[in-house]
C-alpha cells in the first residue's frame, strides 16, 4: 500500500481536471511498469493505492514507479497552474502487505477513504477511486 501527500498538505489537485490528471498518471505509470492497482483513491492533497507487484524480476521497482508518478504529475500540474519548478510532493509511505487479512483491510480503507473524509455518503459516488 502506498500513501503520498503533497507538500504541507496543500490541496493542489483541486477540481475534476487535476484529480483526473493524478488518477490517470498513477494508474498509467503503474500499469505500464507491471504493477496491478487493486484499489486507489486520489484527493486534492494525497492519494492511497494498493497494488500487486510485478511478477518475477519484471517491472519497475516501487520507489521508481512512485518517483515517475510524482515527477509527471507535478510537471503537468505546474504547467496547468503556471508555476514552473514548484515542489508538489512531500513524501510517500509504503507498506508491504503480507497477510490476507491486512490486504483486505487496506483495500477497504482505501476504497472507503472518500467517505471517511466526508466527501460522499458511499464510496461509489466518488469518481476518483476504484470503488466508483
Sheet of most strands? 4 strands, antiparallel
Architecture (CATH level 2) name: 2-Layer Sandwich
Tally of helical segments:
4
Structural class estimated from helices and strands: alpha+beta
Query: According to CATH, what is the class?
Result: Alpha Beta
Between the first and last Cα atoms, what is the distance in angstroms?
19 Å
Give your account of this protein's structure.
By secondary structure, the protein is an alpha+beta fold. It has a single domain (2-125), classed as Transposase IS200-like (Alpha-Beta Plaits, 2-Layer Sandwich), CATH 3.30.70.1290. The protein is 40% helix and 19% strand. It is built from 4 helices and 4 strands, in the order E-H-E-E-H-E-H-H. The chain has helices at 15-32, 62-80, 100-111, 113-116, and strands at residues 2-6, 36-42, 46-52, 89-94. A 4-stranded antiparallel sheet has the order 2-3-1-4, with helices on both faces. The longest helix is centred in the middle third of the chain and has 19 residues, at 62-80. It is globular, with a radius of gyration of 14 Å.
Topology at a glance:
Elements: E1 2-6, H1 15-32, E2 36-42, E3 46-52, H2 62-80, E4 89-94, H3 100-111, H4 113-116
Antiparallel strand pairs: 1-3, 1-4, 2-3
Helix pairs in contact: 1-2
Keywords, please?
132 residues; globular; Alpha-Beta Plaits; alpha+beta; 40% helix
Would you summarize the structure shown here?
This protein has 132 residues and is an alpha+beta fold. The chain has four helices and four strands.
Amino acid at each position: 500500500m502506498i500513501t503520498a501527500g503533497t507538500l504541507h498538505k496543500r490541496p493542489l489537485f483541486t477540481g475534476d481536471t487535476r484529480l483526473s490528471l493524478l488518477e490517470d498518471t498513477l494508474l498509467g505509470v503503474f500499469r505500464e511498469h507491471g504493477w496491478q492497482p487493486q484499489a486507489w483513491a486520489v484527493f486534492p492533497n494525497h492519494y492511497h493505492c494498493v497494488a500487486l507487484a510485478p511478477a518475477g524480476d519484471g517491472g519497475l521497482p516501487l520507489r521508481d514507479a512512485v518517483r515517475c508518478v510524482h515527477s509527471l504529475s507535478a510537471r503537468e500540474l505546474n504547467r496547468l497552474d503556471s508555476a514552473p519548478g514548484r515542489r508538489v510532493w512531500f513524501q510517500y509511505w509504503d507498506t508491504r502487505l503480507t497477510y490476507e487479512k491486512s490486504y483486505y483491510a487496506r483495500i477497504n480503507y482505501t476504497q472507503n477513504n472518500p467517505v471517511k473524509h466526508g466527501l460522499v455518503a458511499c464510496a461509489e459516488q466518488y469518481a476518483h477511486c476504484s470503488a466508483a
